[in-house]
Amino acid sequence: MRPVYVIKEYLNSIQENDFSNAESLVTNTFRMEGWEPDSITSREYLNMMRCIVKGIPDYKFNYQNFNEKGNTVNFTINVTGTHTREIPSIISGVDSVPATNKKIKLPQQTVWVTIKDNKIDTVRFELVEGGGLLGLFKQLGVDLHLELH
Question: Above 50 in pLDDT, residue 131?
Fold first, then answer.
């Protein structure tokens, strides 16, 4: 399968709350950088996304502008959604977030993905002011008290 199709299936699986399929599309050595302050594993990222999608059921990546070179793909995302349900606690020391009915719209971010054996191995998000996990929660009125490195 072409790398861009692996990525689209992964992102669609998250949006559609199909985390079993999302888990099947990543390597055992998967690492993600730039979505939250520290580099995280697939399990950590998907656990966070389960909570976020639970509270923002219409969560969309709005991905576009794919550029594929060998096993590396870059593209842009513009995350949107409406916080209509409680988001369970996703980080130790941070309470769950009751529904606010706020619409979120994160700034455009570029994402770089490396594919290995038809699975996602690394994901790196561009660090953008107001983007990522911190930006999402800030739009909901929650300060996570974390710093990006």
Answer: yes
pLDDT score for 142: 87
Range from 63-67, 80-84, 137-141 carrying the lowest mean pLDDT? 137-141
Nearest to 102 by CA among 141, 128, 134: 141
CATH number at residue 22: 3.10.450.50
Write the single-letter amino acid at 64.
Q
Q: How many domains does the chain fold into?
A: 1
How deeply is 54 buried, as exposed, middle or buried, from its count of CB atoms within 10 A (0-12, 13-18, 19+)? middle
Q: Is the pTM of this model over 0.85?
A: yes
Q: What DSSP string runs through 115-135?
A: EETTEEEEEEE---TT-HHHH
Give phi and psi for 87, each to the nearest 5. Answer: -95, 115
d(CA 17, CA 6): 17
Range of the domain at 31: 3-139
Residue with tokens 């949107």: 80
Q: Is residue 117 part of a domain?
A: yes
Residue 149 forms part of a structural domain? no
Non-local CB neighbours of 65 within 8 Å, separated by 6+ positions:
75, 76
